[in-house]
Write a structure and sequence with these properties.
The chain has about 220 residues and is α/β, with parallel strands linked by helices. The protein is about 30% helix and about 25% strand. A 9-stranded mixed β-sheet has the order 3-4-5-2-1-6-7-9-8, with helices on both faces.
Length: about 220
């Protein structure tokens, strides 16, 4: 999937993947991740997610990574924040009120960029990527982080033949295949959420679940 796809979606305001409320799985399960207040949380492919403001309200600093400058600008404007900008390697860093967004290709993220990060929150990254890019994404996450770092991963699953992604269906089995070599994985919850997503029903879906997983980097 080319970067131009996502740039076009944001430029045309075709952002149905953006949630207008904080994710329920995040609110329900973040305390189980065990990231202490004051620690930094990485949010890959963050868009303009309200979840970042929620994490900030829990006492965390937040480091988001987002491809689209339109999304980065919208996040700060919609939350009444005036960001300071500077170049950071291959990325452009915008920062205000304890939230920093790095604009650019996630795969340009380096270990230097994530210094101080103690936790990861992924609601929209893995499910935004086609299969071949999911493998690369999981490998990059594993290479960036060392033992002990914890993550909350939110995945969705549905009959992939019924709808073209993104968002893509990612089963628990695939998540364990992608991350199991580097992370301990604990399934926390699965909910039937089809009734909450009329736009997906309109696209022909007959089933849709959302699941939460606690992961810890090992080895």
């Amino acid at each position: 999937m080319k970067a131009s796809f996502w740039h076009k979606r944001w430029e045309q305001n075709r952002t149905g993947f953006h949630q207008d409320a904080v994710n329920g799985c995040l609110e329900a399960h973040w305390n189980q991740v065990g990231v202490s207040a004051g620690s930094c949380v990485l949010v890959p492919l963050c868009g303009k997610s309200l979840d970042m403001m929620w994490l900030k309200d829990q006492g965390h600093s937040v480091l988001g990574v987002e491809l689209s400058p339109v999304a980065v600008q919208a996040f700060f404007e919609e939350n009444g924040l005036e960001a300071q900008k500077r170049e950071q390697g291959e990325l452009m860093r915008s920062e205000a009120n304890g939230i920093a967004l790095l604009c650019g290709d996630f795969f340009d993220l380096t270990t230097e960029d994530i210094k101080g990060v103690s936790g990861i929150y992924d609601r929209g990254a893995l499910i935004a990527l086609p299969p071949e890019m999911r493998e690369r994404y999981a490998a990059h996450i594993a290479n960036l982080f060392t033992e002990g770092v914890k993550a909350l991963l939110i995945g969705i699953d549905y009959p992939q033949k019924e709808m073209n992604g993104p968002p893509f269906a990612v089963s628990e089995g695939e998540i364990r295949t992608l991350f199991g070599g580097a992370f301990e994985i604990k399934h926390l919850e699965t909910q039937d959420v089809l009734a909450d997503h009329q736009r997906f029903k309109d696209r022909g879906l007959t089933a849709l679940t959302e699941s939460a997983y606690l992961m810890r980097r090992v080895g």
